[in-house]
Amino acid sequence: MDKSELQDLQVFGETSVGWDERTPPNETVDEAGVPVGESRGFGIHDPSSPTNRIYDDPEVEALRRNLRRSNGISGLEICAPNEIERATRIFRRDGFVVVRDLLDQVQLDSFREGSARILKEILSIPGFEGRKYITETGRLPHRYSYGTASSSRQMMHDPVWASMIDLPTTTPILKSMFGTDDYHVWGGGGDLCLPGAVEYQHLHADGIDAQDLGDERLVYARNMGGNIDKDLSFEELDMRSQRFVMDRTSPMITINFLMTDLTWENGPIRQIPGTHTTVQFPPSIADEPSWMRHSTLVGAKAGAGVFRDNRAWHGATPNLSREVRALPNIEYSPAWRPEDQYQKTMPYEIWETLTPHAQKICRLIRAEKGVWPFGAGVMHPLAQQRKAAYEKDDVKQ
Predict the structure, then answer these.
(1) Are 9 and 121 spatial neighbours (Cβ–Cβ below 8 Å)?
(2) Candidates 3.40.1010.20, 2.60.120.1690, 2.60.120.620, 3.40.50.10860; correct CATH number of 4-209+250-396?
(3) pTM summary value
(4) How many H helices and E strands in the chain?
(5) Per-residue pLDDT tens over the stretch 264-305
(6) What is the DSSP letter of 243?
């Protein structure tokens, strides 16, 4: 690619990055970067995507007209940061909620800088056989994850991500959603799509709720209201009450922060309301009804955040604009999740800079003093390269 494209790269506003017509639609690559057939995971092909990755291609223009006409959830509810009860109520009902003004201008500028800095690092790696960029292993073209592109699988080594863990606008809402201040940070990353990501990402949930640890979850569910007999164990509850316990206790809450306004054109995230409590799997991408494709968060502004129950169906949408759409995130888990599931991805030196509350909720991911987390700080789209960096740190330590 032309390295001059990256000199002034930002994750908001117009950019020359993206729209690589030499990268075929739906092309996915293996761990070494070799193009393969349809990939499981996040590389599922979109059969209705345009056949060319060209800004003014007739098929792209047709998709653009469709999105201009139909994209966005009608009547999307957006809360203010001080509307804690309302935000919690919508979150429990829909499995997500948009809250505006979570970041002040200084925080937004900081997150934009960090997001652009890491993206430059990813895109600076030369593409194969004339392609401008390397597609991330197992993903659709022009889509990257800050988390999975990191050899540690998290961004907790980066001061920008760490600084967003405990904000005066987000922490009160998290305490309300968890029903307690006893929760943990799992990690942080987030996804982004370049202009020219013409494919829809299939609907998915981030992990499957094992529906286990009933008695542990029951303690937290009781803090969230509902008619649950205080003298009964989980096994003694009727089926409706057991379902209530599972529905109310999400294994993960993620906040995705918006670096730019979400528009009908720039790849807004889509969320399907109420799916966080379903035991069904999402429809295949070929069978998705049009309303699900258009169930996006159009209208949410830069500096806002989306609190997501990770069980809810969601997916990325085509970015037909000339603007990068980045959604860096912080991921939080309830205290009932077993401690042995956490990875030490935050350097002790980063942990020392945090607020007291952030130190408390990050203690399970904090590395020991003087020990650098395996793979932290190495970013690469290809799984083979990430694995090599992780194993190199493993050998050194």
Answers:
(1) no
(2) 2.60.120.620
(3) 0.96
(4) 12, 11
(5) 999 999 999 999 999 899 999 999 999 999 999 999 999 999
(6) H
